[in-house]
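Sample A.
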Amino acid sequence: MFILKTLQEESHAAPQHGAAAEAAHAGGHGEHVPIIVEKLNEWLGPAVFDLQAKIMPPIYKVFGFMFGGNVWPGEGLSYEQYRGAGNLPIPTQVVMFLFVVFLALIILRFLRGRLSAESPTTRQQTFEVGVETIRSLLGDLVGPSGMKHFPVVATFAILILLSNLTGFLPDMVAPTANFNVTLALALTSFLYYNFIGIKENGLIGHLKHLCGPIWWMAWLMFPIELVSNMARILSLSMRLFGNIYGEEQVSGTIATMVQWIVPILIMPLGLLTALLQTFIFILLSMIYLGEVSHHSEEHDKGAALAAAH
């Protein structure tokens, strides 16, 4: 819990690319606040703060060990005092991720309206390459039934890629440079593939999958596999967060020392990092899905062969 709390605190200080690195910082937290975040907090902040003042104190009292304290930071404070302490009712990473979702919907709507089988544009062909790559990987890693997971995996790919690239926009921050966002993505992937495992194999079958192939070693393999599966949450979240946060830190530091030319020259490296980390996240998610799906398929094949015999 201490490690998670430290990562969550450190992830608030990621600098920006280029001139955005010299922009204003929020309160005493040193977090760059884009204009869109400031405006949204001006418009909706008081209402959100009033709602948080009602629901957050009880949550902190019960789950305070996860937040590093049993008292909500805004308890007993007015909205002005809460903002004066450097807090935002609507955090930067939440606004940025909502911006990414909105941007994704616009882009997909735009692409959908211009699809053509007779004369595809370069934009459509590029989009189709990404789609075919995911479809091929699902077929190889998950099996013939892998395409039913395409909407989830493709959603991960689009949201993570756009989140990574948002840091390149002026006065914007990458949501994935915040550990809370990457942790939420990792938890979603973890819960989804375990849900699929239970749905396809049943609860007992899914648990048997964690026991290994040798029954008399189950007492040893089960706790090892259980810890290994839980560690995937931290692995997925820290890998994505560490690379995007580190890239923004380096780019922001260089931008404060040498402006324009050098930051522009290292932008291709940041673009490569954004693409590579998106690919790694969805690849690992598909591998985890393949582990639970192949178990079900092997069981079905065995049952079909027995029935035919």
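Sample B.
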Amino acid sequence: MQDRGTSQREPGQSCQHASLNAESRILNPAAGFTLFEALLSITLTGFLMIALLIGLRVANRAWRTGEARLRLVHAAAERDAFVDQQISSLVPYRINSRDPNLPGMFTVLQASATCLRFISTYSSVYRSRTGLALVEYGIVDVSSGNVQVALRETPVADNDSLYHKIVLSVTNDPDTGLPVINYQPFSVKASDLRLMTGLTNAWFAYLDLHPKKGTVAWRTDWHGSNEKPYPDAIRLRWERGNQSGEEVIPVRAKLTPLSTLGHAQ
């Protein structure tokens, strides 16, 4: 039989054994985590996931905004290139007017601050049998502080219809006796192409490189003569809030050949 005294452990030995077990749990990773440690890890992981989702959302929004701005820049560049090419393709076009109040040759050109009408060989839509199109740029007030630049293109069929599309009536100046052309007003239609929208202001101006003494080089209304029927350049200026810009297009048309479509009836 074993001695009962020898089978019992000393108190010091029990404390030493408990201490060794605690140390073994600390040194051994397989011993596991406490409930507090597990909850803390889950919470930190959740915060990291939320931060990652927020970062992805901000990055996605920034990417979409940058892409939208890039599309606007490309659209504006394409629009400016189109307007430049179309106005540069202005054709020196004259017809023999049968209007008793405006006899003789009539130059197809209306050039005011809010309306520009001319004949061009470049069109975004139409290809008439003559290869010519009546181009109309109109600056219209849609509402208070909301200005648009609209484009209308019509194929040229004959001089009679062309004349009446442009001219409303002709009167005489009581002081000079010279004919005064009243052009057809430009009112925007649903089929017109809106080139620029959301503007606060816009207007055309016309360059005369050889003005008479006392006059300015840029005019908001162009009244051509037989010697100088066309301006040297056309400028479109616009304002949108604090932004502003302009497009200056040189006019290459210098001569005024007779129309090949016959006379207006």
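B remarks: Residues 35-88 form the longest helix (54 residues). Residues 256-265 have pLDDT under 50 and may be disordered.
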